[in-house]
Every structure is written in structure tokens, then in C-alpha cells.
Design a protein that fits this description.
There is one protein chain. This protein is an alpha/beta fold. The chain has a single domain, classed as Vaccinia Virus protein VP39 (Rossmann fold, 3-Layer(aba) Sandwich), CATH 3.40.50.150. It is about 30% helix and about 30% strand. It has a 7-stranded mixed beta sheet with strand order 3-2-1-4-5-7-6. The radius of gyration is 17 Å and the shape is globular.
């Protein structure tokens, strides 16, 4: 089971305020690269793939994946994060990358048709996971892949401030069932990377990040 917070006590985190300095944390940059590497090992990324990065933030993962696919759309609910992302797209002259503001909490829905949907370190900020997975399934083409990277169970120790955290990591077996219930086949998980953080007592704490993948049925059933 997941160690979930009472959602009535959880406010939405203001990512707009954090956007300007988000990329200054080298651990975040390394995490994005590690997740991209893990996705590349699990999924055969090809030049004809159209991809979507859900919860893209400043585009750290999106930009890592863009050379490996035909196109990729990064979506996020934070306009501040997307402003930083759009500045990167312009600076790097990335013609196969775009950013889109989508806020599911305000009634927006996921649209389009993609061969690959990825999401990294976003799921623990989502209160209701099952409806989101249904949307992921709906926008994937037959035989398309969903790749989700997030924390193993962490007892609420990973974030210094648990504002906006609805799940203290995930139990892989439970999340695997969520994939299956949404209709995904070939569900697999690996340990993608580790994040080391100091504890209040000065000791180093180790947190593991998994990558779970599932494939939409080819018959679109």
C-alpha cells in the first residue's frame, strides 16, 4: 500500500515560486538524466515516436528525451515552470519540443495521440491516480508505452516540506495493479536511480526511484 496523507490537510504546492531556481539543484539534473537513461533501456526509442512528458516542470527530462524521438510535448500545471521551459526551447532552438499548460485540477483533460507517455517524480503530487491512468491510456496509440518514475515508499522523509505531497512514495506491487486495472499489459519495474540526502541529524539517507512501464494493448481493447 502507499503511505498516503489525508488530502484534506494537503495544500497545492506553489511551483511558480520555485521555477526560477529549480535547475540550480544538481541532484535534479542528474535525476532527469538517470530517468532518461532508464527509459532508454526499457523502451526502444525511435525517430518516429511522438511522446508526452506529464508534469514536465522546466523540461529537464523532456530535453533529455528529445534527441531520441520525433517530437515531445511537455505539459505542466505551473505557468512559471513552463516559462523557464519555453526559454530553454528557444535558446536551444528545439524544433521538435513544445510546452503546454494543462491543469487537471481545474478540469483540463489530456488530449492527443502519442506512442509514449512519460512522467517523472510527479505522481506523488496527484491525489487521484486511477483517473489519471485512464487518461494516459486514452491518449496512447495501440501498443504505446507508459513510463512512470517515482519514489519507493519513503515515510514522508524525502521532501523537506510535504506541502502538495499526497503519497509518501509508492509500493510497486500496488502501483503495478493500477497499471493493469487501467488496461496496460507487460507491466515491469526496475530501480532506476538513487537520491542521497542528508538527514536532520547529519546522516545520509538513501532514497530509491523506480521506473515502471506498461504497454497499451495492440487491439485497442
Amino acid at each position: 500500500m502507499t503511505h498516503d496523507k489525508d488530502p484534506m490537510n494537503t495544500e497545492k504546492r506553489d511551483f511558480d515560486k520555485e521555477a526560477a531556481t529549480w535547475d540550480e539543484n544538481p541532484a535534479r539534473v542528474r535525476l532527469a538524466k538517470d530517468i532518461a537513461d532508464a527509459i532508454s533501456k526499457q523502451i526502444a526509442l525511435k525517430s518516429d515516436i511522438n511522446a508526452l512528458d506529464f508534469g514536465c516542470g522546466t523540461g529537464l527530462l523532456t530535453i533529455q528525451l528529445q534527441p531520441l524521438v520525433q517530437s515531445i510535448v511537455g505539459i505542466d500545471s505551473s505557468r512559471g515552470m513552463l516559462d523557464i521551459f519555453n526559454a530553454k526551447i528557444a535558446k536551444l532552438n528545439l524544433t521538435n519540443v513544445s510546452a503546454l499548460l494543462v491543469d487537471l485540477d481545474k478540469g483540463d483533460t489530456l488530449t492527443g495521440n502519442y506512442h509514449l507517455v512519460v512522467s517523472s517524480m510527479t505522481l506523488h503530487h496527484v491525489k487521484e491516480i486511477k483517473p489519471l491512468f485512464d487518461q494516459f491510456y486514452n491518449i496512447l496509440a495501440p501498443s504505446g508505452f507508459l513510463c512512470v518514475a517515482d519514489l519507493d515508499l519513503d515515510d514522508g522523509q524525502f521532501h523537506e516540506d510535504n506541502t502538495g505531497i499526497f503519497h509518501f512514495g509508492f509500493d510497486r506491487a500496488t502501483l503495478r495493479n493500477t497499471f493493469i486495472e487501467a488496461g496496460f499489459d507487460n507491466v515491469q519495474d526496475i530501480s532506476a536511480t538513487e537520491v542521497m540526502k542528508p538527514s536532520p541529524s547529519g546522516e545520509t539517507r538513501r532514497f530509491t526511484v523506480f521506473l515502471m512501464t506498461g504497454q497499451k494493448r495492440s487491439d485497442n481493447a
